[in-house]
Structure formats: structure tokens, C-alpha cells
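DM from R.C. (forwarded with permission)

"hey, sorry to bug you on a friday — could you get me a structure for this? deadline for the figure draft is monday and I only need the backbone to look sensible"
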Amino acid sequence: MTHKLESKECRFEFADGFVAIGAFKHHRLGRNPPEDNAISVSLGTVGQCQTFSRCQVKGQVVHSLSYKRVVKRNNFTVSYINTHGINSYGQVAFFLQNVPICDSSCISNCNVHKASYWAVILKLQRLEEAHLQLNFDQEESDPPVRVFHPEMCLVKTCSEATEVVPISQILDVLMFINFDCNYAYVCHSPNKIEKD
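My reply, with the result:
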């Protein structure tokens, strides 16, 4: 008689509608200065940090750039409310659980401080220009191709800016349409029912 092993995903619901999916890994500051600086600025005193690469946000699974098993779709591009209260676009580098340093007499698990959950996001700079002029190796006399759609937003992809926001500030998963090494379009998925 053979037994079939079922792989059970590690799932941890940390708030209503928010579930961490997968294993937690210890995170040490100092390995990636731009991201670590953003973490220190946003969280102030950083306690024990652990990262995870997937999170279910209001029924949608959001992957991070650190999750390497996605094949058909990119679910790491999101719209979110930034630290200034403005709707912004970005790509989730990873998710972070932070347990503040305990100043009480707790030994291993702190009973005083609750863990907080954050998304470390690489910001996509929204460009005001609604279209971009492209030239696809055309003859000089050919008109350049103009790309424009009112539901799409042009973003600059080579931004070095990193922002850390509470996971609850993530609004939606976006489609990321990359057409150039410096520019891309983001838009809301036209059909959330269809699967790959």
C-alpha cells in the first residue's frame, strides 16, 4: 500500500482578508541598502524581521519579485496607497513581518507587541505623458508608432526608489506590459475570472 503525500501550503491569516502564504525566512538588514534604508525609515526601530514571498490580499494572490515559481503571469505589480496617501504603482520586492524589540520580560514570543506586516515595493514612476513615441527600426520616412490607450498608464521602470507600506494599503494587482527597458504600461486586468 502506498501513501500519497499531500503538500500543504503554509498559510497564516494575520488580518481579516490577508493571508501570508509560504515559508517565512529570517531577514537581516544590510544586504540590500536601498530596501533596508526604506525599511529603517518606515519602521523606525526594526525588531525581528522575517520575509515571505506570497500573500493573499482581499481574495487575490500577490506574488513578490522574490517568488521564482510563477511561469505564466506576473502578479507582483500592484496599485497601492503610498505613505503620502496617493494612489501609486509599484512591484512588490518581498513581504515583511516585523516584531518590534520587546522591552518587557518576554523571553521568546513577545506578548506585549504584535507583529506588523509590510510590503517592500519598488516604485514605478508614473509619467504624465499619455503616450510614448517609439521607432521600431523603421525607415526615416515612416511615421513613428504611437502607443496610447486611456485605461493604461505609462510608467518608468528603472526607478531606484523603494517604499515600505502596510500590506493593507495594496489595492489591486495590475497587468504589467513591458515594451522597452526603461518604460512599461500598467493597467487593471480586464477579466479577473479567466485563469491561465
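R.C.: lifesaver. The chain has a mean pLDDT of 76.
me: no worries. The two ends are 36 Å apart (CA to CA).
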